[in-house]
Amino acid sequence: MPVKEGEYCGFQTVIEEPGILIVTFNRPESLNASTAPMKRDLVELLTQTQMDDAVRVVVFTGEGQAFWAGDNLKGYDGESTELPPIHPGHDSASGTYNGLRAISQAVNTAVRNLDKLSIAAINGYAIQTGFSLALACDFRIAAHSAKMGSATLRFGLLPDEGGQWLLVQHLGVAKAMDFMMRKRIVDGVTAEALGLVHEAVADEDLYETTMELARELATGPQVAMRMLKRSIHLAADMTWEHSLDEIASKTAVTDHLPDAEEGVLAFVEKRQPKFNALLDGRTEPLRP
Fold first, then answer.
1. What domain range is 238 assigned to?
2. Which residues contact 107 (CB under 8 A, 6 or more apart)?
């Protein structure tokens, strides 16, 4: 089933050429704070996205003053637009465990497992779960005025959606310890200096800068890029020998795709390559 444009619980979607899915969190009155049904709709959308080759890149952003300002502590329910009501958990120790594993942690897992590249366009507050989702994305571009942090200790809570692991990946143990224990919330410029985002831009330039990157990524050789994304994630946990074998097995596939032939032809003919013959239903590269 192709990805559907339209309204979901807590966010909306549109698709722009060439295959850029834009997910906009759209409850600005609550700073786009999340509910259990919103997270479940998001996991379902990402599952459909994984299976839909028409989608090449996913962009996440928010309406109003927030990207995604954590969980809605005033009321964690809400209604899914697609599915029946879901219990949010957290009514007991086992309920908290199940709610985290099945709902909250599943969102970031789905983002990281997505073969398509993802971009977080951080327009405002990205706190707790919203901050972790941004860290789970492959690219992050932040507005100068954005505010990012875990800050769960302000409520005596933990970064239970995997935020501690993601921060260690980006900052290392010592800096992650400082960031979380001291409940730091930083703006876009500071986040760039720390290495939490790839680029910080003027607020008014956020959308166009993000879409420029999205279009660049969407026109690249998608099958090879998806395999490389997975290989990069795996490399962090592999030995040298295992990583060589893993990339060799993927290369045995990508070297024999039409994109590889097209890349060489374009280089020889001194022109821009026209990739993605396979996704377009072609078995041969395009000839100029």
1. 221-288
2. 39, 42, 43, 46, 129, 133, 161
